[in-house]
Design a protein that fits this description.
Length: 477
């Protein structure tokens, strides 16, 4: 067995075992080998990580196959065209590639590749903090290879590129969004010259596929403080290209000395607020889009001021188009976001005096199982700096929660199913599917929501017979 010095990053015993086996395989093949990239970065930052990237000065696919022989039930996938391979074993996903250097054509982000040295491979990396390498070679096992001062940048919390930033981003424009995503995830600052290059080349993002753009956008949305990344996208000019409807929220108009709320910064604060309480991506998207209909509904009314009447309905109608354009899932996640955007004004209207139980029932019925998510969104929507006003809003929402709880316990309206179904109506009156069946179903539903009858089969069936009599319908004997 080859003797090894400890790797000076906080690895688990299992990770150390895996790295030792990779080192042994590389030694037997006679190829220099290094652990590189995100695994090294995240371990040094004490962030959780499981994926390893291995670069060797030689055949990465051959090394992957050799490593797999050491791990029972491991699986190798390889891509000969790109010279890359992946080994999956237990919870580990290990990527292998031969060291290479790359050159790019202006119209494409697909590089021309040829074999290279370790430094060539580090030079092609996007940022200095992602170019850190740990040697797995016998002569200097565990030593850090850091030709671009990535460790110093990590200590200073700086994002910068190994090459001139203009070249880095021209070669692969997706790196502009990656820089912003890392700044958002790690709470780092993008170096001035690096960010200036992003601003100058923002338009090049257009050659990137929508799927890759949206993947980076979702990672920003899942960061601890998404506003960091969203604000950088806005300042760089990229957001205007990839998500113009969000940029339309920015800016303030003044008429007769009256200004409206700056809706872009308000939206970012709402996203941050809700992100403190949930990691649910789609609830965060609902926060991002909750006011998306305001630019289309903004009006100035003499003697009253600025209004955004119906912005929740307009915004809800925009959600499917936005999801389709961004290639986000257009099934259940989209319906969830659309529902919350449409309903987000409703709970505040229920804080007024003399609100009937019927209004509470209707919100429970329409929100269904998503009522708690809706209330989280409403509470996140409180962005006032007036502490007493915030407390008053929160108290009002707590009152709404209590009333909903009481009515839910009595009426069981969440995930409501009609106690008398359309099939029962057709069988009772010997009807085929028609408008009359729908009218009777709606009448039962409205009677339950208005509190005219309880949410029970007996009450609903009795009401059905009474309503049918008014329509000259006779039950079949």
């Amino acid at each position: 067995m080859i003797s090894r010095k400890p790797i000076d990053i906080p690895c688990t015993l299992q990770e150390r075992k895996v790295l030792e086996q990779i080192a042994l395989a590389a030694h037997e093949l006679g190829v220099p080998c290094y652990l590189i990239g995100g695994f090294v970065r995240d371990k040094l930052l004490n962030r959780r990580t499981k994926d390893m990237d291995i670069v060797c000065v030689g055949d990465g696919i051959a090394l992957a196959h050799k490593v797999a022989t050491y791990f029972e039930n491991s699986k190798v996938s390889f891509f000969k065209t790109y010279g890359t391979a992946q080994v999956k074993w237990n919870e580990f996903e290990i990527e292998f590639v031969g060291a290479r250097k790359e050159s790019y054509r202006q119209e494409s982000r697909n590089p021309d590749v040829e074999p290279g040295t370790l430094q060539d491979d580090q030079l092609r990396r996007d940022f200095t903090i992602n170019a850190l390498a740990i040697s797995l070679n016998e002569e200097d096992y565990g030593s850090l290879v850091d030709p671009f001062n990535g460790l110093a940048d990590m200590d200073a919390k700086i994002i910068r590129t190994p090459l001139a930033p203009a070249r880095t981003f021209s070669d692969d424009p997706l790196r502009m969004m990656r820089a912003i995503r890392f700044a958002s995830q790690l709470q780092f600052t993008i170096a001035d010259d690096t960010f200036q290059a992003i601003r100058e080349q923002a338009d090049r993002i257009k050659i990137i596929s929508q799927e890759r753009i949206t993947d980076e956008l979702n990672k920003i949305m899942l960061s601890t403080t998404p506003s960091v990344g969203l604000n950088l996208l806005y300042k760089s000019g990229i957001l205007k290209i990839i998500f113009p409807q969000l940029v339309d929220l920015a800016g303030v108009q003044t008429v007769d000395g009256k200004r409206h709320k700056e809706n872009f910064s308000h939206t970012l604060q709402v996203v941050d607020n809700i992100s403190r309480n949930t990691k649910d991506l789609w609830l965060r998207w609902a926060a991002l889009l909750h006011d998306i209909g305001k630019p289309a509904t903004k009006r100035y009314e003499q003697g009253h001021g600025w209004t955004f009447h119906g912005h929740e309905m307009v915004g809800a109608k925009m959600v499917p188009r936005i999801f389709s354009r961004l290639k986000l899932p257009t099934h259940e996640p989209m319906r969830f976001v659309k529902k919350l955007v449409e309903l987000h004004q409703r709970p505040i209207s229920l804080t007024k005096e003399n609100i009937t139980d019927s209004a509470i029932r209707r919100l429970l019925f329409e929100a269904g199982e998503d009522v708690e998510a809706l209330m989280m969104l409403c509470e996140a929507d409180i962005t006032s700096k007036n502490v007493s006003k915030v407390r008053r809003y929160l108290d009002d929402y707590e009152m709404v929660r209590q009333r909903m709880k009481e009515i839910e316990e009595n009426d069981r309206l969440r995930n409501w199913q009609p106690p008398v179904t359309g099939e029962m109506i057709m069988e009772t009156f010997n009807l085929t599917p028609c408008r009359t069946v729908g009218d009777l179903k709606n009448a039962i539903r409205e009677a339950i929501l208005d509190g005219v009858i309880p949410n029970t089969y007996d009450a609903a069936y009795a009401f059905l017979l009474e309503k049918a009599k008014e329509m000259d319908l006779t039950p079949v004997k």
